[in-house]
Amino acid sequence: MKARVKWVEGMSFLGESGSGHTFLMDGAPEAGGRNLGVRPMEAVLLGAGGCTAFDVVMMLKRARADIVDCVVELEAQRAEEDPKVFTQIHFHFVVTGRSLKAEQVQRFIDLSAEKYCSATIMLGKTAKITHDFELREVLGDTP
User: Fold this and answer.
1) Helices (H) and strands (E) in the chain, counts
2) How are strands ordered across the β-sheet holding 66-78?
3) What is the pLDDT of residues 76-90, one digit of tens each?
4) Euclidean distance between the first and final Cα of the chain, in Å?
5) pTM for this entry
6) What does each C-alpha distance from 18 to 3, 14, 45, 143 come to in angstroms?
7) What span, in angstroms and rounded, lies between the C-alpha atoms of 60 and 112?
8) 18-56 burial, b for 16+ CB within 10 Å, e for fewer?
9) pLDDT, tens only, 7-39
């Protein structure tokens, strides 16, 4: 895997992925930024959320679960002193579908956390990682 980060101006940087996608990162105004993009550590947190959501949705689809939505709400705390690593991260999954089985969703979240999600497993080296979830039932044909 390769990536490239290019300084744009001030405290703005353009992240370019090896797959050809870009996103802007910027600092807070008090750090010399203009608040034009996500902070680098926000990008790390978003990446972890995306990684685990990808795993859970893929496993549910493979299990032929009738899933229509999956949202992961993340809350993280960071160390007070440099390096300001994540010390705690909580993942709250909101999974919407028809006749979803709580045991299955819990198992897939656990599998992601313990085996498949490289990002959260890596972050777990410095942060206490916790998860919970809620299921939302969809009735009829509307999501």
Assistant:
1) 3, 6
2) 66-78, 86-98, 128-137
3) 999 999 999 999 999
4) 36
5) 0.92
6) 5, 13, 19, 35
7) 12
8) eeeeeeebbbeeeeebeeebbbeeeebbeebbebbbbbb
9) 999 999 999 999 999 999 999 999 999 999 999
